[in-house]
Amino acid sequence: MGAVLTPFNLIFVLLLFSAAGFYLGKRQALSVSQAEGGPAALHSRPTYYGTLTSLWCAIPALIVFSLWMIIEPDVIIKLVVSQLPLEIQTLPADRLNLIINDIGNLVNGNIVSGKVDAVMQMAADHYHHLRGISHAALWVIVLVMAMGGTLAVWKLISPDLQARNHVEKVVQVLLIGCSTVAILTTIGIVLSVFYEALRFFKMIPLTDFLFGLEWSPQMAIRADQVGSSGAFGAIPVFTGTLMVSAIAMLVAVPIGLMSAIYLSEYANRRIRAVVKPLLEILAGIPTVVYGFFAALVVAPLIRNAGANLGISVSSESALAAGLVMGVMIIPFVSSLSDDVINAVPQSLRDGAYGLGSTHSETIRQVVIPAALPGIVGGVLLAVSRAIGETMIVVMAAGLSANLTANPLKTVTTVTVQIVTLLVGDQEFDSPKTLAAFALGLLLFVVTLILNVIALYVVRKYREQYE
Q1: Residue 452 is part of which domain span?
Q2: pLDDT tens-digit series, residues 46-82
Q3: What is d(CA 287, CA 395) in angstroms, rounded to the nearest whole number?
Q4: Distance from C-alpha of 335 to C-alpha of 17, rounded to nearest angstrom
Q5: Could you report how far apart the first and last alpha carbons of the chain are, in Å?
């Protein structure tokens, strides 16, 4: 029975109830309208009455379901712990948490070998029993609420019921709720990163982080250990990020923008139908494939070309990573720019032609300025994609934080260092680990500044052409 009364099955049954509520609500609306001369006497279309009934069937029940599933584990754990022997209940919090974790593993079947302690087995059985009771109670409460909501709306259905208005208000509340979740999630992410970054800056001065010229986050474990004193200057890391991103944009923006102009203004439908999907395929290739291509093909080509010219080129370089990354983000620029250019009103082009402008003059002086806000948005998206790329940089540019303006040298980026610092079992009390949050916070600030600049450009040209 417990295998049937699962939350997943309950959601499925609730969806069936909601569908039945829609049918009953719509049928009731048609029924009550017969005495008034038919569906035309209804305030709203019959579909809205069905939708209103369905919403009141599902939404209150889903709210109770969500709250129940959030609260249930903590309540069951407290009840299980209260039945454990007193010597276990009085253990320190960290050891008690380990026992609770073992009970959870036993409940989930993760402990498949070895002798299980009798007390632990009893606690796991008690957990199973309480969870079965909880799920059964949840089924009863949710289904009663679903039927109650359906019945309440069903009785209220009449020709004067403003079903459409109520449905639109419910949808509006849902949209506001979704927007609020997105905003609160962003705020939560920023605050969590900011909090950990503050802990880092209590150990490492902010000036050393912002203006330091050496990045070596390894910290000494023993007093006699040398070579791991820790240096947290972020300038080499951000220099590498900007260098790789700049190389990528020098490749992606011209090629992507020119491709968009050709496809939207010059190419016929047959060529466009073939070339545009081929360009967009580039966005679907996994980044690890680009990384392999950069490490095994592009980097050796650059190194061999440099050797032929008598130039010293590192086996891993910013140039190799930037070139391949630029190819990867071409679709971000070309597809968005193509859509924006096609959205420019034909009347602007016709007006330019009427004044004697040539095709190329119309594109340069009318179409591109009018589409510039969208083009800037596409370029900004490409920049964000370039700054956030990790795999290509790891495989083609390396991990060394060198402060250099030479693209033929090994460099690293912010995202690569964040991943490197947080890989494996880490202590979140050391400057080495907390440095990842400081880098993340600084990267967020830089991205925010780029967004503000782009927004200024978009608003300036939008006001000019609207």
Answers
A1: 231-465
A2: 888 899 999 999 999 999 999 998 898 888 888 888 8
A3: 10
A4: 43
A5: 64
